[in-house]
Write a structure and sequence with these properties.
This protein is of the alpha/beta class. It is 18% helix and 38% strand. The strands form 2 sheets. The chain has a 4-stranded mixed sheet, with helices on one face. It starts with 5 loop residues before the first strand and ends with a strand.
Length: 132
């Protein structure tokens, strides 16, 4: 059994996955747009992603652009979590993810190790950890 994240975007999934692929040195695979799908979406939305996956060393998740009539609400019910291999990597990832977004907890030493929490510029929540 495998449980994995599936992220929803409001039309900027390609931009988000490009950002994440660069950050995590991962590849965008199985990219499918709405172009040839028999789904009722506006013609201006046909080039948006109906499905894609981000795959790399120690990172794998799926994502898509929800159709315009699907309500998406920003919330804090789900967070993506990263266990960095060292403190420098944790700090680099946190800084990149929080740039243009919102910092909720600065990346700093805690009683269990290093931790920071932010929402990135795409509205996705991230927790970055490094346990010493």
């Amino acid at each position: 059994m495998k449980v994995q994240a599936y992220l929803s975007f409001k039309g900027n999934c390609q931009e988000a996955l490009k950002f994440y692929s660069d950050l995590f040195d991962a590849e965008i695979i199985n990219r499918q747009t709405y172009e040839a799908k028999k789904i009722d979406v506006p013609s201006s939305y046909r080039d948006k992603l109906q499905h894609a996956e981000l795959k790399g060393k120690n990172v794998y998740f799926m994502a898509y652009d929800a159709s315009p009539d699907t309500p998406l609400n920003s919330g804090n019910q789900c967070q993506m979590s990263i266990e960095a291999s060292d403190n420098a990597e944790g700090k680099r990832l946190f800084n990149a993810l929080s740039e243009g977004g919102q910092v909720h907890h600065n990346y700093r030493e805690r009683e269990w190790g290093y931790f920071g929490r932010c929402t990135d510029k795409f509205g996705i929540g991230w927790m970055v950890n490094h346990n010493q």
